[in-house]
Design a protein that fits this description.
This protein is an alpha+beta fold. It has three helices and six strands. Helices cover 38% and strands 38% of the residues. A six-stranded mixed β-sheet has the order 2-1-6-5-4-3, with helices on one face.
Length: 143
C-alpha cells in the first residue's frame, strides 16, 4: 500500500488539470448557446449565423429527413423568411444540457403570423461544437 501512495498526488493533479478544460468547454458552449438565442430574439440574423461554422450540417423537418449542408448565408436567409412569416418570432429556452462538445436545448418558439394568428411550438435542438463554432444542428419539432 505504501509503495502506491506516491501515485495519489499525481492522480489528483491529473484529475484537477483535466476537469477545468471540460468545465471551460461547457461554459463556452453554454455562453455561445445563450448568445445564439439572444441574437435570434433580437432578429440579428447575421450575428446569429456567426456562431455557426462556414458550413454546418443541419437536420430540420423543413429540410426533410436527412442532414443538409447550410452556409451562414443560408441560415440568414432562412431566418429572414421566418421573420416575414412571423415578425415577432422569439424563442424561450426551457432547458439546456451540456455534455462535452454537445448541447441539448429545449425551447418554445412563439410569435404572431402576418394575419394575426398567435402560435407556439416546442422544439428540441442537439447542437455540436468544434473549435467554438456550431458544426451540426439537429432540430426536432412537430411540423
Amino acid at each position: 500500500m505504501k509503495k502506491y501512495l506516491f501515485l495519489l498526488p499525481a492522480a489528483l493533479l491529473m484529475a484537477c488539470q483535466q476537469q477545468p478544460a471540460s468545465i471551460t468547454e461547457n461554459n463556452t458552449s453554454k455562453a455561445t448557446i445563450q448568445a445564439l438565442f439572444d441574437a435570434f430574439n433580437r432578429h440579428d440574423w447575421k450575428k446569429m449565423a456567426s456562431y455557426y461554422a462556414d458550413t454546418t450540417l443541419m437536420l430540420d423537418p423543413e429540410y426533410g429527413t436527412a442532414y443538409v449542408k447550410k452556409s451562414q448565408q443560408d441560415i440568414i436567409a432562412t431566418h429572414q423568411n421566418l421573420q416575414k412569416f412571423s415578425p415577432d418570432v422569439r424563442d424561450s429556452i426551457t432547458s439546456l444540457t451540456m455534455a462535452g462538445n454537445t448541447a441539448v436545448a429545449e425551447f418554445v418558439s412563439s410569435g404572431t403570423t402576418a394575419d394575426g394568428t398567435k402560435w407556439t411550438l416546442p422544439i428540441c435542438s442537439v447542437i455540436t461544437f468544434k473549435d467554438g463554432k456550431i458544426i451540426k444542428d439537429a432540430t426536432y419539432y412537430d411540423k
